[in-house]
Structure of Dihydropyrimidinase:
Amino acid sequence: MALTLITGGTVVGPTGRSRADVLLDGEQVAALLRPGDTSLGVDLASVAQTVIDATGKYVIPGAVDPHTHMELPFGGTAASDTFETGTRAAAWGGTTTIVDFAVQRTGERVQDSLAAWFAKAEGNCAVDYGFHQILGGVDDDSLKAMDELVAEGITSFKLFMAYPGVFYSDDGQILRAMQKAATNGSLVMMHAENGIAIDVLVRQALDRGDTAPYFHGTTRPWETEEEATHRAIMLARLAGAPLYVVHMSAKQAVATLARARDDGWNVFGETCPQYLYLSLEEQLGAPGFEGAKWVCSTPLRSRAEEHQEELWRYLRTGDLSVVSTDHCPFCFKEQKELGLGDFSKIPNGIGGVEHRLDLVYQGVVDGRISLERWVELCCTTPARMFGLGDRKGVLAPGADADVVVYDPAGHTSIGYPTDADTARGNRKTHHMNMDHSAWEGFEIDGHVDVVISRGQVLISGGEYHGHPGHGRYLRRSHSAYLR
Ligand code: URP
Ligand code: ZN
Ligand code: ZN
Ligand code: ZN
């Protein structure tokens, strides 16, 4: 078995940090050792096949992104990252596990949709992967399928209160799925936006001639997120089921979630980097049709600073448990452009699977969260929330040897090379299959230096050493947060 030794770094986990050397034995973590420990009676640096000097750097578990949409069919097109390109980009950014969403389309059997997702991913992934299942509707067949899928390691199901006629479930369907989740120990993930009200606002905006990307944001106001979040919590309470609300952006919606948590309810929320940094006016209001690059749902918020302050606060208090990316990339040319003249036809989504660790780390630099909370939000809690906590999101003996060496003295220029970047000789761009970046011009005071997945170095020295097919399917257990 190949031994890898990571020396001289500061190991950071959710509960603390310490100077330690990390020994990897094949695909697993073997030991965390005091620096220079000789108790094993051998000089590990001379017997290890690979020695990585992490002096001055942080050594953290490989990051876990529990919300990606590779190849998601949407609005007559499909998300532009395949499992091959998307998981390679994830690796570049220090994410060694993704949980993607298999999608049941109307009229399709749940099991068939899942089989299609297995086929897309199998043999193509650079990092390990699991699946959630999107239920395109809830009926007797899909309720039965929920039990079958749980037995196969798919222990979470996403429902939509938005997008009537596409992925939508009504309250009765949601209640039935939640009742099922309460009995089989799965976790319902909710896209909480009032899609019926939004459709009225969208129609009225288009009738007024308000067709630009900006109106995607104004027709999904915070009230539609807060109302749906509240309704989802009440339905979960009726069903006695836990609930996980995805991609939260409105402070009012998170306040409602936080109140339910104060009352003792098992409800959880995630947010995404776009809601922590970007604003409706600045991005969707960009000249011409450019704003389409930032069309996503929930949308970027108006007066975003007020929401962002609160979202960071809820990340500190624990009322928001996870930062995911909701990686759902579409190219500007020919994909986002489907909505020229009608914002409601712009495919919804932002690509960012490569940037989450950096963007959330900037919150550490800015004094918004601690180093330990960074690891907890990006690595440990996503793994535990979705039944992967025994293997992923921790650096402990027996866990998978997924490791990131992060350089706090390094620097990351995100996005397509700007003119200034090019002038500085910096030609680095992102590795996602997109013709633009929603994060253009972001500068991060930190850098993903080395990335290891199950003992194999994927990134080092600014180069990619991985290959499609290294990533394996992860059968997930129940969430660690249920009981
Ligand atoms: O705009 C988004 N979020 N696109 C991806 C699909 C979803 O609702 O998560
Ligand atoms: Zn969603
Ligand atoms: Zn999503
Ligand atoms: Zn680098």
The mean pLDDT is 95. The longest helix spans residues 222-239. The chain is about 30% helix and 20% strand. The radius of gyration is 22 Å.
